[in-house]
Structure formats: C-alpha cells, structure tokens
Design brief:
Strand order of the largest sheet: 3-2-1-4-5-7-6
Mean pLDDT: 96
Radius of gyration: 16 Å
Bound molecules: S-adenosylmethionine
Shape: globular
Number of strands: 7
Order of helices and strands: HHHEHEHEEHEHEE
Low-confidence stretches: none
Distance between the termini: 52 Å
Length: about 210
C-alpha cells in the first residue's frame, strides 16, 4: 500500500509541474497543498537534515554584495530566513508562506535578537502583497516558482535563488533548464549553477531592462 507520505510527495510534484507549466492552474492545487503543509508544520523542523540548506548556502555565498532587502518565499518554519539573517546581518528579511501553521512556527522559532528586521507573513507567492521592485534578493528553498511575481518584486540588478535539497528527487523540484528558460524570458542573466550536499541550486540576476 502507498503511504500518505508518498502520496503527499507525489501531489507536491504534480502541483509544482502544473503551476510552472500553467500558473493559472495554481488556485486548483492551492487549498490541498496548503492543508498538507499545515498538517506537516508541527513536525517540519524534525524533517530538516544537516545538509538541507547546503545548496541554498552555496548559491548565497556566490553573491557579489550583501542585499539590503530579502524575501524568502515558501519559508516554511523559517530555516532559510535564519540562514539569510546569519549571512547578511544588516539585511531586512521577510519570510512568506501560505500555510498559517508554518508561519506560526517560523515566528515562534525567531530569536529575540532578530525580531524587527526578520519578519514572517502569510501570503501566496503567486500574488505577493509587495510593491514592484521591493527586494534585492528573492530566495526559494524547495519552493514552487512563480516567475512573474519574482520578476515584479525584484529590483533591477537583484538576484534570485532556487535551491532543491535533494536535487531531482526533491518533491518540489524544477529542472535548471526550465528555470533558466523561464527566467531568460523575463530578462534574467548571469546564471550560475551549484551542487552541494544532496542537492542543487541556481542563481540568476534580473537584467537592467525595465
Ligand atoms: C517543501 S516546503 C519548504 C519549506 C522551507 N523552505 C524549507 O526548505 O524547509 C514548501 C513550503 O512552501 C509553501 N508554499 C507552497 N506554495 C506556496 C505559495 N504559492 N505561496 C506561499 N507559500 C507556498 C508551503 O506552505 C511550504 O511551507
């Protein structure tokens, strides 16, 4: 018999593929995927391994200068946002997740010393509550990409990171060729690919054209 975990992982991949191929389908998948992550929120931290953020960290290490405003999409319990806070001590960081359970955990996990510059909000990455060109860096760790919104909220010259902890076996995974094609179509350049731990990551820069 197939376990609930396997069904959940397969559903996450189906939702990812559908949202990338046709973002208009996303509202059909959102309620069930949100419920899935609400259920996972209490145990999510125990599912993170030592090298879960190795590819994410490697891509961040390649940035040529520290960003001032950073957005971590699909932040879950906030582990990626905490990586950002340690690496960029001067940055303002927002972690966004559609799951209320995940956001609640992320807030609870936030060290008192980071409160103020590191905040968490519930929102859908497909329709972000931020003005155009608000961020210098937008990050994704094991998160479905919504390319139009990333391109909208990034400043010209800003960077985007996509990291997948287990490479192609990560439930939410998008091949680098697809990421590059979607980003190139929106004027992104300076692509760099990384492998670390069990996973991979891609870094790109938003071109200067409006
Ligand atoms: C696989 S988890 C990754 C969490 C965290 N980044 C990590 O690697 O530990 C994916 C997260 O993205 C969130 N998510 C998925 N689609 C989203 C969307 N459209 N908007 C905001 N959050 C979303 C889920 O609720 C979930 O918490």
């Amino acid at each position: 018999m197939i376990s609930r975990e396997v069904i959940g992982r397969r559903f996450a991949r189906i939702a990812t593929d559908a949202a990338v191929r046709s973002p208009r389908l996303w509202p059909l998948f959102r309620p069930l995927l949100r419920k899935q992550f609400d259920v996972l929120a209490p145990v999510w931290d125990s599912m993170r391994l030592e090298d879960t953020f190795a590819p994410y960290e490697k891509a961040l290490a390649a940035l040529d200068r520290p960003p001032a405003d950073v957005l971590d999409l699909g932040t879950g319990t906030g582990a990626g946002a905490f990586v950002l806070a340690r690496r960029f001590p001067e940055a303002r960081i927002v972690g966004v997740d559609m799951s209320a359970g995940m956001v609640e955990r992320a807030r609870r996990n936030t060290p008192a010393s980071e409160e103020g510059r590191l905040t968490f909000q519930r929102a859908d990455a497909a329709a972000l509550p931020f003005a155009d060109q608000s961020f210098d860096l937008v990050t994704h760790a094991n998160m479905i990409p919504f390319f139009d919104e990333v391109a909208r909220v990034l400043r010209n010259g800003g960077h985007v990171v996509f990291a997948f902890s287990s490479g192609a076996t990560t439930p939410i995974y998008v091949a680098a060729t697809t990421l590059r094609a979607e980003l190139e179509a929106r004027g992104f350049t300076d692509f760099a690919e990384f492998t670390a731990g069990r996973g991979n990551a891609l870094l790109a820069r938003k071109g200067d054209r409006p």
